[in-house]
Write a structure and sequence with these properties.
Blueprint: E1 5-7, E2 42-43, E3 48-52, E4 57-62, E5 65-67, E6 71-74, E7 80-84, E8 87-93, H1 95-116, H2 122-135, E9 141-148, E10 152-157, E11 163-166, E12 168-171, H3 175-185, H4 192-209, E13 217-222, E14 227-232, H5 235-240, H6 254-264
Parallel strand pairs: 1-14
Antiparallel strand pairs: 2-5, 3-4, 3-12, 4-13, 5-6, 7-8, 8-9, 9-10, 10-11, 13-14
Helix pairs in contact: 1-2, 3-4
Amino acid sequence: MQSPMNVKTSFLGSSGIQPSGNGRRSDRDDGGTDPHTLPNEITTGTTTVGAVGTDGVVLAADRRASLGGKFVTNQSARKIEPVADRTAVAFSGSVSDAQSFVRHLRAELRGYELRHGDAASVETAATVAGDLVRRGPYRILDLVLAGVDDGPAVYQIGGGGGVMDTAYAASGSGMQLAYGSLEGGYEPDLPLADLRRVVAIAVQSATERDTASGDGMTIATITADSLDLEQFGSVADGVASTGDGAGNVGSNDPNAIEESDEEVR
């Protein structure tokens, strides 16, 4: 029997850029860095992406953590964390805030299960996550939460705690580049194999231009049967793991992937 969760490595990290996309308004309107973020706060100029497919959801993120966006402090940060058997969250913002938030959300969802005798739905998990962000004390934190229960679902949770369901979402400093790739490659009802490649290429596209994103990739694949979390030492390895996938997205030429890897590094 396949384990419901295959977690291969562990670390937390993320970025403080406000999310938007698919015509939705951001929860912040200042257009800049949160004034409560400390000068020496470890963050990541993250790119996180999540999308819905026919039989599951995929989350992906880069692995770079930085100090104030100016100095790389960690090249193997994990910005996707499981919070339930079939639910995970990708985050951008302060590392300390992200660590505290994930612990708090896991505890809340476990408490819900004990009180109600059943696991929280993905929608409930997103609502609880939004409430936690809204109440604080998290200074700067933007989330993409995804999971599968009755069906696959992705929710974008802004820094003010607003919760929006969506077919796909991106956050972090590379989000605009990721959205450009997603909107060119994403289609409703993509099979999971193709969806993995579309999402991975969206992260890769961001790392090629966003200097605050890079240093590897984490991919979470969630179905009704399992939550698999994979870590890759380079962005190109993450893309290569998805195979040929959707033929109309990116390049299937392995030499082109290697050239992209050189640019990322």
